[in-house]
Design goal:
By secondary structure, the chain is mainly beta. Helix content is 6%, strand content 46%. It folds into two domains: 6-127, Elongation Factor Tu (Ef-tu), domain 3, CATH 2.40.30; 133-239, Jelly Rolls, CATH 2.60.120. Strands 1, 2, 3, 6, 7, 8, 9, 10, 11 and 23 form a ten-stranded antiparallel beta sheet that branches. Strands 12-22-14-17-18-19 form a six-stranded antiparallel beta sheet, with no helix packed on it. It has a five-stranded antiparallel beta sheet with strand order 13-21-15-16-20, with no helix packed on it.
């Protein structure tokens, strides 16, 4: 019998004697989202790339082999207790993690003697397959580069250490980030926020561009202006 498992928000299906078999949804990939328009007198549709991808499903068939009734009840409750997107990993894909939420009706089937339980567990996940290697931190104390191994631009988390409260400039690709604060500041390029712990620090940064910087496919240059002693980059590589 398969001993594959999934882990959702730190809780393993193995904790409930629930072992997993693969489904076709594991090979799903989302389609890029386009708006299409018909223009009078023009053949073919006009398309506008919205620059995003929709969510997809990730389903697991599970077999519960021990204390089926109790374990089904416990698994049902723990899944229902989680709210919003949580981290999802499984033993079918050891290079990626997903951000997913559980919102399906739990409908198991039981053997006649209630010693064996089966169910289909369905998660809806964000389209990205986040690379575990994208959680490795690159630390620079002088100008350098960072190489994106994927075909998609990543939105990094930057941990910047400054030695003065006067303006210091961090360059990420074509974007300069001016920081007017001494100490450690986190800049999340995915959410567009600056902070340290629970303290918001958005007022202490300014960008030379409208959008926060990304790490495009290939090599991105990083420059550390006067007053910046270190930048630690969590790149958050992803692919479909």
């Amino acid at each position: 019998m398969s001993r594959d498992t999934f882990t959702f928000d730190g809780i393993s299906s193995a904790d409930y004697s629930a072992y997993v078999y693969a489904t076709d949804s594991m090979e799903q990939a989302p389609a890029r989202v386009y708006d299409t328009y018909t223009v009078p007198g023009r053949s073919g549709a006009l398309i506008v790339d919205r620059g995003n991808f929709p969510n997809v499903d990730r389903d697991y068939g599970i077999v519960i082999t021990e204390d089926s009734a109790d374990n089904i009840s416990a698994l049902r409750n723990v899944l229902a207790s989680r709210s919003g997107y949580c981290r999802l990993t499984d033993t079918f894909d050891t290079q990626h993690y997903f951000m997913a939420y559980y919102h399906e009706t739990f409908s198991p089937t039981m053997s006649r003697d209630r010693t064996l339980g089966k169910a289909l567990i369905s998660f809806e996940r964000k389209p990205q397959r986040w690379l575990l290697s994208g959680e490795a931190v690159t630390t620079l104390t002088a100008a350098g580069t960072i190489d994106n191994p994927t075909l998609f631009s990543a939105q990094p988390l930057l941990r910047v250490t400054t030695t003065r409260s006067a303006a210091s400039v961090l360059g990420v690709g074509s974007t300069d980030i001016t920081i007017k604060r001494q100490g450690v500041i986190y800049i999340d390029c995915a959410t567009g926020r600056a902070y340290n712990g629970a303290t918001p620090l958005d007022a202490y940064i300014a960008l030379s561009t409208i959008d926060f910087p990304v790490l495009a496919p290939g090599s991105t240059g990083i420059s550390l202006g006067t007053g910046i002693s270190k930048v630690e980059i969590t790149p958050r590589w992803w692919e479909l």
